[in-house]
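hey can u check if this looks right to u? its 327 residues, i copy pasted from the old doc so theres a chance i mangled smth
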Amino acid sequence: MIITRSPLRITLGGGGTDLPSYYRRHTGFLIAAAIDKYVYIALHRTFVPELIIKYSKMERVKSLSDVQHPIIRESLKTAGIDGQYLEIASMADIPAGTGLGSSGSFTTALLKALYTHKKTPVSPRYLAEQACHVEIERLGEPVGKQDQYISAYGGITCFCFHPDERVDASPLSISSDTLHNLEDNLLLFFTGYSRSASSILKEQDDRSQQSDREMIENLHFIKELGFCVRHALETGNLKEFAAIMNVHWEYKKQRSKAMSNTKIDHCHKLAMDNGALGGKLIGAGGGGFLLFYAEEKARLRRVMADAGLQEVRFRFDFEGTRVVVQS
């Protein structure tokens, strides 16, 4: 039995510049933080020459080519495993489609389990590269690279995505006091519904590939905000970080009409009127989680609860994708 876990993430700055359509021409930069909410993969050998897969559906197939779940099928191919005599099951702390990078976490957790099954050690960098290969190259998904990399590395990490596909990863140089205050004052609220990010990301991807001036200038500015976030956090200026969150959200909404809606805008304003110093929607948009920075947390929690938003409390994860059971 092998059980792996991979953390979900929140983006602190620069989100959107990790899509290939942008970084392959302009270089991307962002800061992401892994959190202690996880995707789990359980894998074990069976006594029958077939592959059993359990997720929101159940598959029982004789051949790898018959697997319907695209990430599982392509991950098995990438790892060089035919899947026979195996059972694979997945679970998650947070539903998919909520903007916390669950697809990338799922892929890294799965690949970690498969390579552990093969007794092949893999570094966080290799694991992230392989997960990106599965989702971007093999499946052609219009996604970026941050989810796979932050889930593999963990921590609060700065990533630079180069046009030649190199990715530089370095931990944020943040003091212990700033780290603790940041962790205590970030609050995450579920809007109540999930969504597919594909259509929103595809719109950004298509416009970037077409060198749409408005989209490219928006992403250039978002990247500069990422550098500003790094400076604010490394100098311990959390109020400045909160202010940047608001600017980021205003520019993020300009990338797609589907990024926000009346409910999200109402909840953001409600939070800003009741103790939040900054906030934005996490992920591609259209639903999922709102993230706020607040020092008057009790009032913010009360009004968000009254508005029907459920808080998910979290801590940062500094372990990344790892094996938690091997027997």
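The first strand starts at residue 2 and ends at 13.
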